[in-house]
Amino acid sequence: MNISYSWLKDYINCTLSPEDLAAALTSTGLECDGVETVESIRGGLRGLVVGKVLTCTEHPDSDHLHVTMVDLGGGHVEQIVCGAPNVAAGQTVIVATVGTVLYDGDKEFKIKKSKIRGVESMGMICAEDEIGVGNSHDGIIVIEDEVAPGTPAAEYYNLTDDHVLEVDLTPNRIDAASHFGVARDVAAWMTVHGQTPVLSRPDISAFHVDDPGRAGVGVDVVDAQGCVRYSGVTIEGVKVAESPEWLRNRLNAIGVRPINNIVDITNYVLHAVGQPLHCFDRAHIAGDKVVVRTVDRDTPFVTLDGVERKLDAADLMICDANRPMCIAGVFGGLDSGVTEECTSVFLESACFNATRVRKTARRHGLNTDASFRFERGVDPNGTIDALKLAALMVNEIAGGKIVGDVVDIYPAVVERPRVELSTAYMDALIGKHIPDDTVDAILEALEVETESNAAGVRTLRIPTYRVDVTRPCDVVEDILRIYGYNNVEMPAALHASLSFKTPTDAADDLRRCLSGQLTAQGFNEILNNSLTAEAYYEPLSEYPAEHCVRLLNPLSQDLNVMRQTLLFGGLENLAHNINRKNKDLAFYEFGNVYFRNPQAESTAERPLAPYSEGARLALWLTGDIRHANWAHAAEPATFFHLKAYVANILARAGVSERETVTAYTTTELLSDALTISTRSGKRIGIMGIVDKAVARRCEVKQPVYFAEIDFDALSALALKRSVTFAELPKTQPVKRDLALLVDKSVTMADIENAVRDAERRLLRSVELFDVYEGDKLPAGKKSYAITMTIQDNEKTLNDKAIDAVMKKITANLGKKVGAELR
């Protein structure tokens, strides 16, 4: 939320600089992200001064240019060539001196020393539109007042820069969603810092009804549960036009676009005191009556943005005698706006049920300044004051007269909540005793009424605009944030008791272990939102959209379901980095995936959980795995790099290659892939090359290698492993090589399984070191060269024992995969 420094000072006599004010607000819980200087005129009229035209003669080489001598003050006289038809000697003008930067929309140009048709010119005499003080370009500005040459133009126009504080509101502090609300906190801060604040409320004492005998718009609140209070007033004879400059500047400073004087007044009051208003064109209110009610489900309604929406039976609507005009507290209807043809208006100031407004806004995907405030709770006792302030401004700026009585329907008056606060409780919660007079001063500054104070217990009446303060701890928090958290000293001693270490979660230990391993290998950890777009799953059968867990009230269509795979979030991260010239990437993520089982209700014999979730570990590789340098060329990432990282993960979890089976497959997401399963058939994960079409959907155009491991399954396997100690073998290992001729369909995994099946006790490793395919081999054949390590930890192997092992391996290779020795 943006707060204008100059606007804020209308309500509080604050002498702090904008930067110091930001620090003070941050200390009270209204965190300020920064302070931005806002110029009412771009450039702040820097370099522009008042000048006096001493002489004006015709240009020797032009029939429309004039050569002038202009006094710029301090005895400084410059020659300036001017093309304006109204320039004349003796005029007081505005001059842009050499070096001044002028602006035209997004464009800017610098005034330079120049020659215009051979005559030197040392500046420019300006028109209104050239410096941003008006729209006229009929001629130069001629100042009628007596102003000394050399006076800065900013001083002449009384131009002052404003400062805007960017305040981050927490959801419970809706009372500070206005300039006056922030001023209340500033006043409280000043109280405890030895200053005397003067808090000035907007003056509404001049409000009166001009013609009470003339009927205004009637109001009927049918749904009192949805509308806590409804106030309104009718104003006739208004003239809708552009707002005055001061009002436009106020709104522009905080980022609100001016529209017309009536709409701008409602926006001004909203940001001044925090009360949303709506203004209706009386001519469009059928029956001259406003009815607050609900409508039938699926009733079509076109909102101000031109979108037709289907209403829900729970949506609270502002209607006339015939039809709905506005979604209460959320958004106006297409015909509810005020145009230049409007001459009579009805101003609405209401308090709607926060829960109803929130559900309606989410249901229709709308988020407005009004709904932002109504959802969190608007002060029901502030509607009339805001209404009177707006009516006075309409009367002053747009003319007109207030007719009929002020409508105020308030069936159940909201009283100030009572809270009992004991001093002992407050001291225990804070950890320090704050003097009673300081507490009383803070409570008074926060407009908390002390009804009684006896035996160390205060009975307090909380203002109704503080919807978040309902318990003693809430009051203590308010007192402490004003007193200052930094003023609570750290104790000189800490008291603690020794306790044994509780058992840790083995899955968490494994996660930390693998995270450290992957980070050491050059990966960066990412963390994505579990919410994603359903559009990713709509074309898929592997992860069908009907299996997505949908949100009832999504914030947007890009975050409307929970993810079934980690793939798409990582692809979005890759695209973000690649688009910023960072194309060599290695990511990993631990995260949960979520599934809905549509058949859960139809399997009565064996009920299934309607929803499930599981933990996953995912890897992404793209670009170069190693950058080029003087010693070697760049090494692009390949599937085999990914396979090695996955193998390392399994090994670190204690899952050996002999316990897993890999199988080639293709999926909708991975064009070439390997599934990883246990020998019992339980799938552990999958790894492969992301399909190009899938990658392009996320705007990734380079190859991506992806692996997703079922972390729950991996953790279960890891828990079955126990770390045991064994002495290092005292014998030497023996290596033997075999060159095998096999069918092209045979994989290295098949060969390795055959070798391990033949010798389980002495075999230590099997590795492939050469592959050959060529015309020197029989058709349909290829050659694999493997090396095997065998070792007996107890004794040195002799040739006879080694030959026996190799004979068993060779025989099993021939039997299982049809291998022949070359």
Question: If you had to describe this structure to a student in words, what would you say it looks like?
Answer:
The model has no long low-confidence stretch (mean pLDDT about 90). The strands form twelve sheets. The protein has a seven-stranded mixed sheet with strand order 27-31-32-38-37-36-35, with helices on both faces. The protein has a five-stranded antiparallel sheet with strand order 5-4-3-6-11. With about 800 residues, it is α+β, with helices and mostly antiparallel strands. The protein has 20 helices and 42 strands.
Topology of helices and strands:
Blueprint: E1 2-4, H1 5-8, H2 18-27, E2 31-38, E3 48-58, E4 66-71, E5 77-82, E6 92-97, E7 101-104, E8 107-110, E9 114-116, E10 119-121, E11 123-125, H3 128-131, H4 153-156, E12 162-168, H5 179-192, E13 218-221, E14 227-236, H6 245-253, H7 261-273, E15 277-281, E16 289-293, E17 300-302, E18 308-310, E19 317-319, E20 324-327, E21 331-332, E22 344-352, H8 354-364, H9 369-376, H10 383-397, E23 401-409, E24 418-422, H11 423-430, H12 436-445, E25 449-454, E26 457-461, H13 472-483, H14 506-520, E27 524-525, E28 531-532, E29 549-550, E30 561-562, H15 567-578, E31 585-596, E32 611-622, E33 624-626, E34 635-636, H16 639-652, E35 660-665, E36 670-678, E37 683-690, H17 692-697, E38 704-710, H18 711-719, E39 734-743, H19 748-758, E40 763-772, E41 781-790, H20 799-817, E42 820-821
Parallel strand pairs: 13-16, 27-31
Antiparallel strand pairs: 1-12, 2-12, 3-4, 3-6, 4-5, 6-11, 7-8, 9-10, 14-22, 14-23, 15-22, 16-19, 17-18, 19-20, 20-21, 24-26, 25-26, 28-30, 29-30, 31-32, 32-38, 33-34, 35-36, 36-37, 37-38, 39-41, 39-42, 40-41
Helix pairs in contact: 5-12, 6-7, 7-10, 8-9, 19-20
